[in-house]
Amino acid sequence: AWVSANAGSGKTFVLAARVMRLLLAGTPPDRLLCLTFTKAAAAEMANRVFSDLRVWATADDEALAARLTALEGYPPEPETLARARRLFARALETPGGLKIQTINAFGESLLSRFPFEANVAADFTVIDEREASELLMNAREAVFRQAIAAPEGALGAALSTVSVHANEDRIAELVGAVLARRGAFRDWIDDSGSLDGALEGLRAALGLQQGDTLDAVDGEIVESPHLPPSEWGAVARALPRAKASDDRFAEALEAAGRTDDPGERFTAYFEAFTTKSGDLRKAPVTKDVEKQEPGLYERIEAEKERVGALIERRKALVLLDASGALFTLCDAMIARYEAEKHARGLIDYDDQIEKARHLITRDLGAAWVLYKLDHGIDHILVDEAQDTNSRQWDIVEALSGEFFSGETAPRTVRTVFAVGDEKQSIFSFQGADPAMFDTMRRRFSARARQSGHGFEAVPLTTSFRTVRVVLEAVDTVFEPAANRKGVVTEDIWPIHEPSRKHEPGLVELWPAIEREEAEEISPWRKPVDAQPEDNPVRRNAARIADVVQRWLRTGERIAPGGPAITAEDILILVRKRGRIAEAIIRELKQRGLPVAGADRIRLLDHIAVQDLLALARFVLQQDDDLTLATILKSPLFGLDDDDLIALAPGRPGTLFEAVRAHPDYAETAKRLDHWPNRADTVTPFAFFSEALGEGGGRRCFHARLGREVDDVLDEFLSLVLRYESAHTASLQGLVRFVEDAEAEIKRDMDQGRPEIRVMTVHGAKGLEAPIVILADTLTTRSATHAPRILELDPPDGVPGKPGPLVWNVRKPLQTAVVSAAAARRDDAEDEEARRLLYVALTRARDRLYIAGHNTKKDKPADEQDGHWYATVHGVLRDKATPVADPYRLGFDVWRFGDLVDPGHDAERAPGALPEAAERPAWLDTPARPESAPPRLTAPSSAWPAASADTVPPEPPPPDPLSPEPVHRAAERGRIIHRLLQSLPDLAAASRADAADRHLARADGWTEAERTAMRDEALRLIATDELAPLFASGARAEVPVTGTVETGAGPLAVAGIIDRVAVLPDRVLVADFKTNAVPPETLDAVPDAYRVQMAVYRRLLGALYPDRPVEAVLVWTATATAMPLPGGWLDAALALPS
Hints:
Blueprint: E1 2-5, H1 11-24, E2 32-36, H2 39-58, H3 61-72, H4 78-93, E3 99-102, H5 103-113, H6 115-118, E4 125-126, H7 129-149, H8 154-165, H9 168-180, H10 182-192, H11 195-205, H12 214-222, H13 232-238, H14 244-258, H15 262-273, H16 287-292, H17 294-344, E5 346-347, H18 349-361, H19 366-374, E6 379-382, H20 390-400, E7 415-420, H21 434-450, E8 457-460, E9 462-467, H22 468-477, H23 481-484, E10 497-500, E11 506-509, H24 536-554, E12 570-574, H25 579-590, E13 600-602, H26 607-620, H27 625-633, H28 641-647, H29 655-661, H30 666-681, H31 684-692, H32 697-705, H33 709-726, H34 731-741, E14 744-746, E15 757-760, H35 761-764, E16 769-774, E17 789-791, E18 805-807, H36 816-841, E19 844-850, H37 868-876, E20 881-883, E21 893-897, E22 936-937, H38 943-946, H39 966-982, H40 991-1000, H41 1007-1022, E23 1035-1046, E24 1049-1062, E25 1067-1073, H42 1087-1103, E26 1109-1115, E27 1120-1124, H43 1126-1132
Parallel strand pairs: 1-7, 1-8, 2-3, 2-6, 4-5, 6-7, 9-10, 11-19, 12-15, 12-16, 16-19, 22-24, 25-26
Antiparallel strand pairs: 11-21, 13-14, 17-18, 20-21, 23-24, 24-25, 26-27
């Protein structure tokens, strides 16, 4: 069956139901193969199948019969019920389990099963994208080094040729483009037999003959039958010079005739007929020449036509030469990369597909492998079939080949079940082609008919996700033929049937933010990366953030009578990561709104990683003033511009010397001096772990950048560990490794966190949200990012055969063949952009908002074509209702839909609504709050709740870069704390020995330091005023609960007191604190400690009203005790003493 499904029609549900039906019909679990596009999709489907099977195993007969009836459409037989109950255990017990996996995972399993036939190591290791990127980078650098070392060799000559047409950055970009498509590149070469054979195919595709060379064509251009070189001077003198162009032509002929140098002669003559860009001039001379010298004019025109044909050949030869040089370099890089992988027993993600495809389609052992597999697979299910590329389809075709031919065809029921939506094919950069979905449908249909099998083409048009209004808008947008070109293959738009027919919805069109004339600001006065207030990107982001803030702060509902809008209900989509996504996230954060951050982060682009690398660079080069200034302003040190102004201007030496010399920054200098010493004694991982972890550097980043920075910091530490596992560890080597790694973080945005999501449309594929905002609908394809590697049509026109690849050096060098290929590529990108729009529009469940900003100065958004804004507004605006300034933010909107009142106080068009009834007064009267029991609070966290009038300041984060490491002092305090807990229970004579045994297990301390900790703990225990706390009648770790009256009302608390001694005349209570630097006075004691001890004192005072309660703080880092006055403690609870 071939299922064509609209967005939101339940493709995963259909596939899961198909698996359940096959299992229920008796298909062994190991004979099913379900191939998905992503690991997440595979996990979701497997979870859904096993969840249903688990319910079947435990449901009673009535419930199970109801479920099976809903699945099959008819009541089950008793034996079917029994079989259904056993399926869960059977699926679990099947060796290898249900094969619901990505096609990469299936390819890996094939290679593991047939390593000898696939020519891979039996214990091969799969490397991820980062490791593959590192190997490719090493191969690339090795080839470049070889080319530079031997300039006369093949690689040296190739690099020299490429360098004529591209600078260093462009060469790196070109090589990266070829290496990214190395599968297609190798297919082309392998299909041609060799690189030389492939280049001969390119020669033919460009229309060149075997003996054509640049020198030959240049010579042919100069040796003109119409204007012989011997006549150039005479022609120039005879030429009427009525216009400047006539002068230019004559002067070029004269220059060509004067020189004997072949190169100069060709250049001068060539320029007579061409423009500066190298294109043929439409008219080398003017019509005045035709009037005065008609014969000469005819000769010049005939020569123009002859030279024009030769220019095309010359362009083709330049392209062939440049492409051959580039591909020679790339072929050498790929060969080195493959050799390195083979030597180390590695395969990458591409190998999982390519080697598996070769294994069952091309290699000599393919027949044997397919024979073995034919006895293990009866049903193949393909998810997201529109994104399956031709190489992956080769695997599916090979696996299913025996389903339709040979003696096995009628043996049993064997099926192929594919589900997809060509309208959602948006991964062309991974080789996906929407036409393949229809091509494979036709191919499997023909094979089924030829073998006498049935074939069903099933459309799924009902959407269970989206309300009617939004679906009608989608259908309206793609109603014009121009808008649906490339979205559907047969130009027949499948109308969306809504399941949620009677639920309200809304589509809202916002006016584009236009570019405004900005006041010129001196470059010396404005920050380099600052966006001006009138920047359309910033204004668009601010407008979106203002509307979102209004929704969340006013409690607006998704629909009348529905739930209030929450942060996780909002999905903001952009076409590409960049300024608009960053601006939206920044504006949301500035308004205090919860936002998830970017869905994909390039590690080296994140400011936290840049700060950590800057710390490393400073350690390596302490005279680098700019790097030092960078880390001083980072969260790790927290200085600001005023501090730098106090340090930097007028300094006699380096910035580091200025910090050391300034008395106000002595502590900063001390911290800076510490880190070079640490780098000399620990590994890079230990270095950064200490900076981030124990000292509180991570918390500093939290304070500045939010919790989402954890993903970046964790990935950075993982990268450091990976570096250390494969290289000799050094800080300098690590910095280079991280800079070259190009690591990315892909964050899972479908975890249901209470945050606004901002992500690309590609990343949102498969996701949905009640409210979707399309933020950058005026983005278009950039000419500066035009593809440089193009695929031409194969010379023999064989469908499915790889076409020759060509380097599209620059537009003036394009021949007609290359221009046609570039135009096809542009058309394909435009078609994918329309499919991407379809995906974006169909993410919305209830509301859809269309926004955008125009960055072009000379053309308003309404006058531009080729972008989403024009596509959507062009067809919806006339059918929408204008609404004046509904958000009170100064912009009008157009509304399409029947969401009568989405929550705003909007001015609507006359007659849109009947007059509203008078608002009852009770509606605005706040309900009396219900009384609730006090919330249970730990005494150590009681301070914020104990005061009704003050908001506690955020405690300063621990200093992450302290030269006397905080973690060491804190560890010392914890050790003494442990001694104070355990030693009092022992006899006095044995306490010293017990302390020594405990301290012997503490690593990293000298004998003298261990002795000092033991003596201080024993001294504290023996102190007269504390002796009762450690006497035999005292108790340790005493739990206590109760309610304490405070100035803010009753406070319920529960906690554990470190030591309590109940004496005849008093109660003594103590708490041990491990602060690295204990306060020396009462005023310096943290308020949280003060309230905690006040709570303990008040609770114990209620238990022992006949005697006073005395409280003591014991500072374990210095082994000292601090008595706390009762009146001072009572004041902390805002109560009279």
